[in-house]
Give the backbone structure.
Amino acid sequence: MLRDITIGQYYDVDSPVHRLDPRTKVLGTVIFIVGLFLVKSFLGFAAAGICLLLLIRCSNIPLKFIVRGQKSIAMLLLFTVVLNMFMVKGDVLVRIWFLKITYQGLYTALFMGMRLIMLVIGCSMMTLTTTPLQLTDGLEKLLRPLKKIKVPVHDIAMMMSIALRFIPILMEETDKIMKAQSARGADFESGSLLRRAKSLIPVLVPLFISAFRRADELATAMEARCYRGDEGRTKMKELKYRTGDYVAMVLLLLFLLAMIFSRYLPGVRELAGTVLTLLGVR
């Protein structure tokens, strides 16, 4: 399951999405997240889902690979859905002892589940189609105006990209440690949930040691190469917007407008009905 985590990984393949400027992909991810939180109807989620499927198709990344990455959030998804089903008050559909499943709770659970799945896939698409170096350059360019108020933009962008890059590395390291301890008789799958959580504690010690060792090695390598942040730093490839980036930004703005429209569609209908009634049309 740990290897199924797709956030932080880069899928090396040629596609129109891979060739986009990293700034376009970062802004696109932000717009997509904002659009998801604007949605208040299943029609809006259907539109967002179609857009996401088209993006995956254009990226040439296998859909099976994307779906497999959702296994990593299975427990979080289950917890979110169950919590909303039983905690939201409303019209009771099913009563199990003192627990009640309400219509409003089921509705909210479906909403939260779809939103979480699309959120993870949308964020994964950014890292799957963007190398850590491109991501660093893109974030630095986007945050450049903050330099005027003495914000260390380059350092922040570098830390964010390194953190994303370390996610799959740490997951792989965790998987190796768990397999090594399982070969020595450790049991991570049987027993109650609390017992399985306690069994993971011995994994944390070698994992933290490995993480600190990797961080120290990275710091030593950067120092050996005379890394001094963005002071006097030049880039081999300067970022430039191309025609595909402008087309992508127009499509993203249309997506955001569609999400806004889907959110306020009931209000627009009511307003139109009121106006028509006042005009005596109906």
User: Anything to note?
Assistant: The chain has two domains: 1-130+241-282, 149-238. Strands lie at 92-96, 99-102. Residues 149-238 form one domain. The mean pLDDT is 79.
